[in-house]
Structure formats: structure tokens, C-alpha cells
Amino acid sequence: MKNWIIYLLLILVYSSNAYGQTLNDYLIIAAENNPNLKSKYFQYLAALERVPQVGALPDPQVSFGFFIQPMERYMGNQIGSISLMQMFPWFGTLGAAKNEMTFMAKAKFEEFNETKSMLFYEVRANWYALQLLEKEIAITKENIELLRTMEQIALTRFKSGGQSSNNSGGSGNVRSSGNQNSNNSSNGMGGMNMQGQSTTGNPSSRNMPQMNEMGNMSSSGSMIDVLRVQMEINELQNNLALLEDSKIPLLARFNQLLNREKNELVIFPDSIIAATIPVSLNEIPDSIKNNNPMLKMLEQDEQAFIAQGKMNQKMGLPMIGLGLQYDIFQSRANSESMMNGRNMLMPMATVTIPLWRKKYTASVKESDFMRQSVIEQKQEVSNQLMVNYEDALKDFKDADRRVKLYQEQTSLANQALNILIVQYSTEGSNFEEVLRMQQQLLDYRLKYLDALIDGNIAVAMMERLMGR
After folding, report:
1. Are 179 and 417 in contact (CB under 8 A)?
2. What kind and span of H or E run contains 64?
3. What is the pTM of this model?
4. CA torsion sign, 26 to 28 to 33 to 35?
């Protein structure tokens, strides 16, 4: 068990630093506690124990025989015999059997590596998804606060009868919220669909002044502005509730991978660093073909069937048995033999005759067909891995383009929103454009988050394919 833990720790030491220490801590916990990974490791240990089993000689045979009545012999009366026989397979048979089991054990070890690689990928992907959700929740709360500031501006204009407001305090609050929105957008990552159901407050339940002048179109417009912004707040509160609910199954899945309680807290850093590809793009295909655990497992299976074919071939050769027989005699009266009553020790040898050749020939052909099957399977897996790599590379490049795009779009939308809010607070115009731009900014920030997370997951997939 200690060797296993040391092996996993050494693997983690050389893992990419792009994920941060916190993620590496969770990977170590998963490696130590995940039941499926531990099960695969114990299967590997069990496979190692088969090597000495097949490499041992057959058990010797001991026979005892006693006569009910002594048998008269020239040397006296024989009362029984004891024999010992040891069979020896043909030269090289046991070595071939040990080679077969050794390669099968190595295949089990690569299966363990494949399980570990998949486990680490799932831990990373779920960790990123949870981190994405945390960022989305924070951004949604920021936008709700921004809309509440806009609601206050609309209420102020409504109370003033739609006159231009030069309230420096209200305008200052808007600018502060806008700047905070811009700074936070630079740290955002990834995005999620904003759909769901939640219970939120009804706009009519808020304390709002009533319109006293129904004929005043400016006041009516301001009142409509208040209602519109309250509708937007309700929508965001509903989305926020959905995000909070979505966190529960993701947290349970992540902790399940670590074999912990489903509600155990997961800690994230303040910001997410975009992951980078650990090697150059030109090296990745060769790295996959040389290091992927599934391909290595199939290579070990191929070698195992080659060794099995050699063993089956040698099983068709004679087995040699060597032994001893000890006959027990009793002295016989009136016998003039000098050997009267003396026990006898007799060396023995035996040879099996593998006469029925069909079964041995069939076993050799079976091993060869299985080897060819593994070769074709290895080619199929290699082709599929290359397809998976191309998909991951496409996702990485697409995510990189989207990161640059939405980073720029977010900056531009934030500037436009600040200008529109100032115009509305001073002139009372373009409120619909303010809400539209605010929604556009929120969409850009979430898409920027989504793009960063997609890029990190694509890198994690490449590392899984390379068995890193």
C-alpha cells in the first residue's frame, strides 16, 4: 500500500502547475480515497501473485500401498511400498507461463493507470464546473446590485416628475457600480445557460410611489422604467436561485469522486488561471501513441498472448517424471537368499506422450488469433484517440478565440453601459438601451467565463489522452 501511495505522489509532483496547488490537493485526496481506483490497484496486486503460481513445478505425488496379506517374493514377503514422483514440464514451459502472467500483470497496471487518468480528468472537470458556478453566482449578484442602483435612479426621476436629475450621489453610485463590473469581468471565466425556476419578489410588493399625474407622459415613462428594471431583477433572482440549486449535484459528484460526504465544502482560489498545453502541439500525437495507458495495456496483452502461444507449443511436448519407489519386505523362514527381508529402493522415470495433437495445435492457433485481435483493437483505439485529440484541440482553439473576443466585447460593453447610465440619470433617455446593454454585458461576461473553462477542460482532456 505504501508503494502505491508513493507512486501516485510522484505522479502528482510532475503534473502541470497550471491547475494550482488547491486542485493538486484534491487530486491527491482522490488518488488516496477513490474506491474504483483502489479496486484497480488491488487487481494489479492480485495479478502479480499469479506469476509465482504458474512458474512453480507441479506438486509431487506420493503413493502408499500395503498388502492385506504379505506377498511372497524372492527377497521375502513384501508387505507394502511407498513411491514418490515429480513431473517436470518440457524445458522453457514454466518460463513462458511466467512471462505470460507477467505481461498480464503489467496490463492490469496500465488499466490502473487508465482509471487514474480518467479519475483525474473527472476531478479537474468537476472542479472547473464548480468554480464556474461560483463565478456565475458572483456575477449575477453584482448585476442584481447594478439593477437596484438603476431602479433607484428610475424612482428618483419618477418622484421628480421626469425632470433631469443632477444628483451627484446617484450618478457617482452608477459609475462605481460600472467600474466594479468592469474589474470583476476581467477575472471571470466560462458560462452556463441561465434557465430555471425560482421564487422571487413581486414588483408590486415593493414600496413604490403611485402616479399622481396620469397625463404626464414623462412621469408615465419613468414609472414604466421602474417596472422594467424590477422585471429584470426578478429574472436575475430566478436565475440566481437556479445557479444555487445547480451547485448541489455538482458538489455531490465532486465529493463522490473523492469518496467524501456529499455536502463537504470545496475551496476555490480567488481567480482561475487559464491552463496551457504542457507540450508543443507537434509532440502531442506521438506522446499519445507512446504514453496512453490504454494503448500500453493492449501492448502488454499482445505480449502476453505471444508468451501464451509459446507456452501452449511447449505443452505439446512430453513431460518427464522422476521418482523413487521403496518396497518393504518381511523376512521369510527357510529362505537362503542373501537379500531375504531387505527393503528395496528403486529409481523411476516416466514420460507423457502427447499423442492427441489436435488440442495442442488448436491452443496455439487460439493464442495467435487472440494476438491478432489485440493488434486490430490497438489500431482502433489509436485511431479513436487521435479523433479525441483533434476534438480537444478544436475545443482549445475555439475557447482561446472566444476568450479574446469576449474579453474585448466585455470591455466595450462596459464602457457603453456606463455612458448610457450617465445619460439616463441626467437626461432620462434610452432606458431600454440601458437595460439591453446591461443584459449584453452580463451575457459577454458569462460567455467569457464559459470560454475559459472550456479551454481548461480541453487541456485536461489532452493530458488524459497523454496519460499525464
Report:
1. no
2. strand 61-73
3. 0.74
4. positive
With beta carbons less than 8 A apart as the criterion, state whether 229 and 158 touch.
Answer: no
Rounded Cα distance between 143 and 442, Å, is: 7
Q: In what order do the strands lie in the sheet with 344-351?
A: 61-73, 76-88, 320-330, 344-351
Q: Cell 414609472 belongs to which residue?
A: 223
pLDDT greater at residue 83 or residue 175: 83
Q: Using an 8 Å Cβ cutoff, are 147 and 139 in contact?
A: no
Nearest in space to 435 (alpha carbons), one of 153, 68, 64: 153
- Tens of pLDDT, residues 277-296: 878 888 999 999 999 999 99
DSSP per residue over 300-363, as a string? HHHHHHHHHHHHHHHHTSPPEEEEEEEEEEE--TT---TTTT--EEEEEEEE-----HHHHHHH
Distance CA 391, CA 371 (A): 30
Separation between Cα atoms, residue 170 and residue 425, nearest integer Å: 8
C-alpha cell at 26: 484534491
DSSP 15-26: S-GGGHHHHHHH
Q: In whole angstroms, what separates CA 154 from the centre of its chain?
A: 51
